[in-house]
Amino acid sequence: MNLKVNLLIVILGCSITAYGQKYKSVESMVKFFSEATLENIAADNKDGSSVFDEESRQIVFSIPITSFVFDKSLMQEHFNENYMESEKYPKAVFKGEVVNFVKGKTNQKVTAKGDMTIHGVTRTINVDGMMEYKDGKLHLNSVFPVRLEDYKVKIPQVLWQNIAEEVEVTINFIYQPI
Asked: What is the C-alpha to C-alpha distance for residues 173 and 46, in angstroms, rounded to an integer?
């Protein structure tokens, strides 16, 4: 799986290279937040990578699941072993197009449409966000919900008060021209 994801990024990166100004992420922050009856759960991940082509508007990003860091190590262990099965499904991947991106527009609302793969399940999604050129870099920010059931992430019935059925995902990528 890891090799397939890396190969996908290389292939998309090469295909993006053929069309115009390309950007590669130099910083990233991906967060998720679960608000449930008994407790809130949050985790951060700084190891995501992404490539974006402003001409073709193609975008791809890859998030290593084991890089999410929790406040409690036991939560992190349960997340990887019991829910996300990180050894079997090591990355979350999105590939698609930022459909309404306008090259050179300073600050704009955008929508990405494409396929998100989490936990071995691929679904077509639309995600709204903001893109901004700032200090020679391109910034992408988005907040969107992910329903665990949609990606076959099973939560034991006994834990329904601990883990929300839908988590909030926040992504922040900062890109530089390649």
From this structure: 10
Tens-digit pLDDT profile for the chain (178 aa)? 455 545 444 445 544 444 469 999 999 999 999 988 788 889 999 999 999 999 999 999 999 999 999 999 998 998 999 899 999 999 999 999 999 999 989 999 999 999 999 999 999 999 999 999 999 999 999 999 999 999 999 877 666 667 788 999 999 999 999 9
Pairing label, strands 49-53, 166-177? unpaired
Angstrom CA distances, 178 to 14, 17, 51, 133, stand at: 11, 9, 9, 15
Structure tokens of 45? 């991940």
**Rg of the chain in Å (alpha carbons):** 16
3-state secondary structure of 147: strand
Q: Is residue 157 classed as helix, strand or coil in its secondary structure? A: helix
Give the amino acid at 151: Y
Q: What is the pTM of this model?
A: 0.84
Indicate the DSSP class of residue 10: H
12: Cβ contacts below 8 Å, ≥ 6 apart: 51, 58, 60, 95
Residue with tokens 């704009």: 108
